[in-house]
Amino acid sequence: MESIQAIKQRFGIIGNDAKLNRSIEKAIQVAPTDISILVTGESGVGKESIPKIIHQLSHRKHGKYIAVNCGAIPEGTIDSELFGHEKGAFTGATQTRSGYFEVADGGTIFLDEVGELPLTTQVRLLRVLENGEFIKVGSSKVQKTDVRIVAATNVNMFEAIKKEKFREDLYYRLSTIEINLPALRERKDDIHLLFRKFASDFALKYKMPTVKLADDAIQLLMSYRWNGNIRQLRNVAEQVSVLEHNRSISGQTLKNYLPTGAGQNLPAVINDTKSESDFSNEREILYKVLFDMKSDLNDLKKLTMELMKSGNISEVEKDNEGLIQKIYGNNEEKTVQDVPVLAIPEHREDIVEPVIEAEDKYHFAEEIEEEETLSLHDKELELIKKSLERHSGKRKLAAAELGISERTLYRKIKQYDL
Ligand SMILES: Nc1ncnc2c1ncn2[C@@H]1O[C@H](COP(=O)(O)OP(=O)(O)OP(=O)(O)O)[C@@H](O)[C@H]1O
Ligand SMILES: [Mg+2]
């Protein structure tokens, strides 16, 4: 059996922390079995290495390894992606397609962000776990597959179960053995080691001498919270390596690169020249309004689709209570019966009301169109980046701030390759 050290080297894992070693050891131990594994740990702790280790050290290593980010696939296509579909199963299904569970027969599937799976998909997944059976979307034929499943999550699954977002039976099936990766703040002795490794990688990449930390800077690294864990540490190492002329980094200098978590709701732009910062804040508000409008429009589209499909207003109303409340607020008189009219312009006013004075609103919208259309894409990217930075990579908080769903944020992160 390969030693833990050899495995770490092979998979580029840095650190000597006892908890980290225990997790890797567990991965090595379970690899030869077919037991389902749930990898847990905060965002950025390195969960993605574990399923790779498990696959490579198993008898399946010559089979396929497929990593699926469950949060990044739109809800409408996820069943088809995972289990495939029959020709004609839905509009656009011009051909029969194999899903990942068919393709990965004999191999391993890594279900990342498994807590994001829609409930209907969870039912299908449970069946695969129980007896290796699945059915393509639009088919009635039961197929068999032999796939090892490793799942990962950075959310509290018990809370998801309590909120009925995740099936308890599936949770227990998936997490026969749990491998938890420690947060960076729990492995303080590894922090400086990791920083040195990243700093030396970036020095090589950017052809500059390696930055070196003064003692007070090392102390600062070790006492920082690192909500975004190793991903955040690597980002800080990159920024410092690229931006600092002086290669010797003091604590005072390093401080500038470490956002303080408490001020999560403060404006991200803290500028010396007041007028400029006011301007950016105003812009931020405007883009936030645009985000909100877009998100509501998407919700409305979804509602309309469901209405068209089902034709049963009260049923749709019952199934989409949360969504309707989100779009219309708590006003009990407004029900889905109002929806077919799709009073978007009228509704748009509702949405922008708190921010922009009534008579200005279309004027504003036009101005944005004229001046910013070309860079809207850049602005969206910029806002997402800013928000993620402000929340140390925590997508849940960033999504809430941006007023979009977590799923939409995942897709944007993927789309912009963030
Ligand atoms: N021990 C480590 N040594 C070196 N690099 C690491 C280590 N752990 C994580 N990394 C790096 O940190 C980054 C984040 O790791 P990874 O993508 O596995 O995080 P994650 O736990 O899956 O986070 P999320 O829940 O946000 O998806 C990756 O680039 C990874 O290579
Ligand atoms: Mg991940």
TrEMBL record:
Q: Which CDD domains match?
A: AAA
Keyword set, alphabetical order: ATP-binding, Nucleotide-binding, Transcription, Transcription regulation
Top-rank taxon:
Bacteria
Every copy of the Sigma-54 factor interaction domain together lies at 13-242
Protein name as annotated = Sigma-54-dependent Fis family transcriptional regulator
Species of origin reads Winogradskyella haliclonae
List the PROSITE patterns hit by this protein, alphabetically: SIGMA54_INTERACT_1, SIGMA54_INTERACT_2, SIGMA54_INTERACT_4
